[in-house]
Amino acid sequence: MPAQRDPDHIRIFPETLWSRSAVGNRSGELTPLYVDRFRGPRRSTASDPHDYWEITAVLGGEGRLESTESRPLKPWDVCLVPPGLAHREASEGIMDTIWLGFRSPRLDKRTPQAKVLATIHSRSLAEEIERFWIFSKQSGGAIGPELDAHCSLLLSRFHRLLQDGTRPDSSLVQRLLRHMEKHFAEPIEVGSLAQEYGCSTGYLYRLFRQKTGYSPQAWLTRLRLNHAIQLLQHSDLPITEIAPTVGYRDPLYFSRIFRRSTGESPSGYRRNHRTPG
Predict the structure, then answer these.
(1) pLDDT in tens, 51-94
(2) Among candidate residues 175, 71, 162, the one with its CA nearest the CA of residue 122
(3) CA-only gyration radius of the chain, Å
(4) Is 198 helix (H, G, I), strand (E, B) or coil?
(5) Is residue 52 exposed (0-12), middle (13-18) or buried (19+ Cβ within 10 Å)?
(6) Which of 62, 85, 166, 248 is the most buried (most CB within 10 A)?
(7) Residues of CATH 2.60.120.280 domain(s) within the chain?
(8) What's 8-46 look like in SS3?
(9) How far apart are CA 86 and CA 240, in angstroms?
């Protein structure tokens, strides 16, 4: 493990890494500014933006990345922080992270108003970022063009994993949907699930609504009532038993929710829509 370092004094790559190479210039598409590593607690209260992109890879320990919301950080989490977003890391214990700062006119044009964090969970990518850090420290000579190429590959892989589902937004929603389908008759605490998934409750609520058009509670209600409708149409179970079967301990409350959604009471719905058997 590296020794603890001051995260406020990061070594910027010297221009000679490029000027002395055969290429002679930095890439106009994407070029790294620094890569550094820090192992220790994070207790700074400062939350400042910067005018470049930054990748944060967590190699050990746990903490939080705080910006407009607070996101848990665990080993193998990789975050992309956009320019202009005030943020800070926080941890009471030792957290081992690598920061890779870079400029990318190409990415600036694609996401000119980016003000949100993107996060994936990938041990292989975090370890590749560690290898990039090792290469930058141990290699001598005019390695600037190699740093450009390697940094570009890391960013491309980050975006591919984000889209493919290592831990992208769509995967979080799918996990919650599967949990609801399996446990719809039980109490479901979205806050506890968000903590398990490694995101904030507010973020999961917003993401779920964005992907489905419903809040988690509204979706759960639809799911429960759909199961209730199946039982009303295809079984002889009394309503007092159907209610707890689909997640409502109080049959009167279940009846109110059912009427509000369908315009009919459960008994009326059974009478009007019963499937002949």
Answers:
(1) 999 999 999 998 988 888 788 888 889 999 999 888 889 988 89
(2) 162
(3) 25
(4) coil
(5) middle
(6) 248
(7) 16-167
(8) CCCCCCCCHHHHCCCCCCCCCCCEEEEEEEEEEEECCCC
(9) 53
Domain with CATH 1.10.10.60 in the chain: 169-277
Architecture of the domain made up of 16-167: Sandwich (2.60)
Q: Give the confidence band of 273 by pLDDT, cuts at 50, 70, 90.
A: confident
Token representation of residue 233: 């149409």
> In Å, what is the CA distance from 37 to each residue of 42, 52, 57, 117?
13, 18, 9, 20
DSSP label at residue 212? H
- Take residue 29 and report the two structure tokens written for it: 């598409």
Q: Give the whole-angstrom CA distance, residue 81 versus residue 150.
A: 19
- Is the pTM higher than 0.90? The answer reads no
Model pLDDT, residue 265: 96
Nearest to 57 by CA among 74, 70, 41: 74
Average per-residue pLDDT for the chain: 86
- In the structure, what pLDDT confidence band is assigned to residue 115 with cuts at 50, 70 and 90? low
Report the percent of the chain where pLDDT is more than 90: 51
